[in-house]
Amino acid sequence: MDKHKQDKTEKEWYEFWEKSGFFKADPSLSKKPYSLLMPPPNVNGELHLGHAMQQSILDALARFKRMQGYDVLLLPGVDHAGIIFESTLNKQLSKEGLSKQKLGYEAWMKRAWQFKEDVYNSFHKTWTFLGISADWSREVFTLEPKVAKATFEEFKTFWEQGLLYKGAYIIQWCPKCGTAIEDLEMEYVERKDQLYYLQYGPLVIATTRPETKFADTAVAVNPKDKRYKEYVGKEFEIQTLNGPRKMKVIADDAIDPKFGTGAEKVTPGHDLLDYEIGKKHDLPILHVINKEGRLTELAGKYAGMKVEEARGAMLPELKEKGILIKTEDYTHSVPVCERCKTTVQPIISEEWFVKMKPLAEKALKNLDKVNLLPKNYHKILTDWYKEIHDWSISRSLWWGHRIPVWYCQKCNPQHEVSKDKGMVISLEKPTQKCLICQASDWIQDEQVLDTWFSSGLWPLATLGWPDKTRELDRYFPWDFELTAPEIKYLWIARQIMLSLWFKGQIPFKNMFFHGTIRDPKGQKFSKSLGNGINPYELVETWGVDATRMALYTYSAPGRDARTSRRIMDERCKNFRNFGTKLKNLHRFIFELKPKDAATSSDFSHEEDTEIIQWLNGLTDSVTKNLESYQLHLAVEDLYDFIWHKFADSYVEWSKKRRAEAQPCLEYVYKTCLELLHPFMPFITEELWHKLPHEGKSIMVAAWPEAGIPAK
To answer: Does domain 544-700 have CATH number 1.10.730.10?
Structure first.
């Protein structure tokens, strides 16, 4: 028994593991590899229960596979998280009376990198205090040179294959974040608004957005709507707040005859459906809302006002001029930015896009090769791939991978995109002359790439792609990755497409979608709601092992769960008591060991045979549940066996034949510690070191196998 290591703290045990090199993968080993890829948390400084549960699941599987004899790579990393990072930093700067504009690009970037370092340090503290056994020597940040190289290769290849284009199209724009966002980065909130009925010549239309009236270019009806058959194709004069205008009536199948009056205004510059209708009917596009969410000069005296402000100011005049007929209460879903909750504005903007259909088709042919848990995610992703649209990849930010396109200022001042224009695809500023005009005056595209453009390469870039590395050859595709369900399209679906496109392989063999932990009302935890549970506080109160065990009870694949601080405290307290039970068992079995205790046994006594049979069943079930990622079932079985079958039953029986039962007590107890180690790493290491043992750590002890113990 090693006296020196009996009373180490959790921090000391973690340092012992790390210094011993147990976390490091080694591609040169003859062992079979097993690779787990950590989802990179956003570098915005917020830790929540979801992060803690994710990391605890990954660590349990990594420890399990090490004990099974695998060369395990658990690779950590952090995502630069363009939009949310800028938003978080800019809020901090505003408290200091600063802004991006006041600081300028160079000074702002300097502050950004310092902020990134501060946040990263808090992440690393989180990982280590939870006992995460990741290979820190291979940690990746999504803005580091290795990822920049991979991202450039992705962009350049798409350009060469004709899958990239730039143009002015209608996109979703967040005025507060100041950038384009994907449909997938929006969420819909139910809002009680007014439905405004407006007089448009001889017709009445209904709208929730009267402020966009200035940019209307037609009135549309359904061609099957008999009420308006006589008006289709005719042009009328309508009254506006800027005087009379001509407006034509068109017919389109997209119009819902049951909405409002069945006649709708068409605003191609500020509505996705209207944009498609406008393209079909060759309607002009007008802009009345700018990228700051304010009305343009098109709105006359209302120019410069924010949308809500302008709407309120317009209503009295609309009513006075007889344009506003009536209003009705109306409840509808409104798109908001998932990050800042600002109402999203559809606007026309010049952005970069990737054609996605070829990538989606390849993904559909190979999706069966990924084991998706739960299984229903196969259909969910399949349906999305079938309906996929082109991906807007440019963002009006400073924090991110700058678009690697350089324009010749002399012959291409408008920054037009074409292979016969003065432009170059390059990661660094070009040194060559422009092929069109022979000038050397290059300027880079001001936008950055969508965060998901680089994060979608996470399985490849982390292993050194596009270079041919031994890590890429050994650990790709990854054996296991997990994520929250809400980024299944933004991240998981794109990882699959990009890995297949660039490597010809699926990125991971097993993808685990864990559920979302919510508050008792079913709401997500958030700062604004004040309903969050800080994992640090749970650990400080109950310890790492107890907190981890409580989190595993919520880890069923795809199953959302509701909890509160009170419930978490109850579960953590229960598992802390479980840890105390383990210590008490150790004291009874080893510290109070009889002097005449047997040193060997044939385990033939009825009670010994029964507990060994139960233990074999436990070993099989825990192994099976870990292999199938049912960690919640594994901890349930461990708790039940150790507390009830072993402590309450067998240990009590053994008191009648204490000396004779000693070998069986020791064997069962040691096996239980080893089965429990992936879930409760600190207490199992501490207690294992107090037992007679071989090897340096329980972390590298052999995983138990069911069978008859050796005498």
So the answer is: yes
